[in-house]
Amino acid sequence: MTSPIYDQLGFGITCIDTQHMRRPGFVAVYLLEDAGRAAFIDTGCYLSVPTLLSVLDDKNIKQENVDFVILTHIHLDHAGGAGRLIKYLPNAKIYVHEYGARHLVDPAKLRAGVISVYGALFFKQFLGDLVPIEKSRIAIIKDEQKITLGKRRLKFINTPGHARHHACIWDEKSGGIFSGDTLGVSYREFDTKQGALIFPPTTPIQFDPNTWKNSIQKLMQLKPKYAYLTHFNRIKFGQKSADMLIEHIDGFVSIATRLKNVKNRHQSIKQALLAYLLEIATSHGVVLDEAQQTYLFKGDLEICVQGLEVWLDSPDF
What we know:
Elements: E1 5-8, E2 13-17, E3 28-34, E4 37-41, H1 49-58, E5 66-70, H2 76-79, H3 82-86, E6 93-97, H4 98-105, H5 108-118, H6 120-127, E7 138-141, E8 146-149, E9 152-158, E10 167-171, E11 176-180, H7 209-220, E12 226-229, E13 233-236, H8 239-258, H9 265-283, H10 290-312
Parallel strand pairs: 4-5, 5-6, 6-7, 11-12
Antiparallel strand pairs: 1-2, 2-3, 3-4, 8-9, 9-10, 10-11, 12-13
Helix pairs in contact: 5-6, 7-8, 8-9, 8-10, 9-10
């Protein structure tokens, strides 16, 4: 394969571009290093694993020196490669929220769920496969739990809202949060003088807007300097960033609620959501033309609509 693409971010942190679905700058995996030890935060999908191993080789990190594979949550663009990766890391444990652990041991439901939505061809071409993981290789993440990588302390924080099985990782050394999807999606192509444009990935099936907003405020108590996003790379993240994300969670919810009972609901929400995203990008000073913006939003648009519809139809709505 070609040489892996990655950014050295300082503080012993590397952002690896998995080029998920053959799109650069879409899905990141983070490699942490401290005192000769290493850890991955998220893994990308099954097809991402050769890239992660190539980065270890590039950086002369022995596979046996990787102590942890930490999963923010078990959506396949974040964790689909865990079972394949762990086979190459003889001393590593996988850390995951208790609600996600059983799906790593037996991924049949995960596989079936993705195929039911996207089809078997998509699964094979863009996700690859899912490999079961032995229970002995899995450690359950507890809220406020701390672990040590080399001399570096990491703290887990339960952050439901995007998914019930979501946790974030506070890294005191960098003043940053490895946030999975909890602190939103922000693609570097949308950066302007105003900073990063951030919007929420309302992925099915556990989107819960009020719980999510509470998780964001919980994280802000740490006063972070950075968010290490899976989608995509590190951004500066302060209260203004959190306020933007919460505003757009409310904006997505408003669109879905307004269109709950219309005919052709799915397409109506999709059109309205795209219009909303294009509008906020323009207000943010993004100068890409509409076709370019639409292409960049397209990877999230369909699953955001699906998540909003599941939420609309939930008993708790």
